[in-house]
Amino acid sequence: MVVLLAFAEPGFAGDKTYTVIDLGTLGGTISVASAVNNAGQVVGWSQDADGHTHAFLWEYGGMRSLGALPGGTNSEATDINNRGEIVGHAERAEDCGGSTLVTHAFLYDGLAMNDMNVVSGCSSRAWGINDRSFIVGWAYPPDVSVVRGFLFG
Using CA atoms, how far apart are residues 148 and 118, in angstroms rounded to an integer? Predict the structure, then answer.
């Protein structure tokens, strides 16, 4: 699977032409784009050569991995704002009711992937971030049997 990015350029009389860009992969066979900001930075996830999925940032014609949280190997980026802040979710080695690998929401600030610590234990995922750095997503607290939406900011 190959991810392609298309940019519209205005033409005459309302006609549009498109440029399609193959974003590539991180060494595996799959990449998926999730969001693009006004600067043309694209985020998503891609497999590496070992089959792990990594959140990526594509800019200036190249894709780079954003890594993973401590103890985890997989991550996915879901959104990017116009400030270049990226959110998503990543695995983390942690005990949660017998499961030793849980998913935590993260915020990538341009330097590092930071665990948002929305809940202690179990799982959380960040799905969107706006230009004021407000983040939305969901969390599955260990003491609650249902998923809860959250607003972080």
Answer: 11
Query: Are β-strands 99-108 and 113-115 bridged in parallel, bridged antiparallel, or unpaired?
Result: antiparallel
Closest C-alpha among 142, 145, 146, 94 to residue 115: 94
Look at residue 93 in the predicted model and tell me its pLDDT: 79
* pTM, 2 dp: 0.86
Whether the per-residue pLDDT at 66 is higher than 70: the answer is yes
Backbone phi, then psi, for 14, in 5-degree steps?
85, -5
Task: Tell me the residue length of the chain.
Answer: 153
Q: What is the mean pLDDT of residues 27-35?
A: 97
Q: Is the dihedral of CA 21, 3, 88, 111 positive or negative?
A: negative
Alpha-carbon Rg for the chain, nearest whole angstrom, is 17
State how far the Cα of 145 lies from the Cα of 99, in Å rounded to an integer. 15
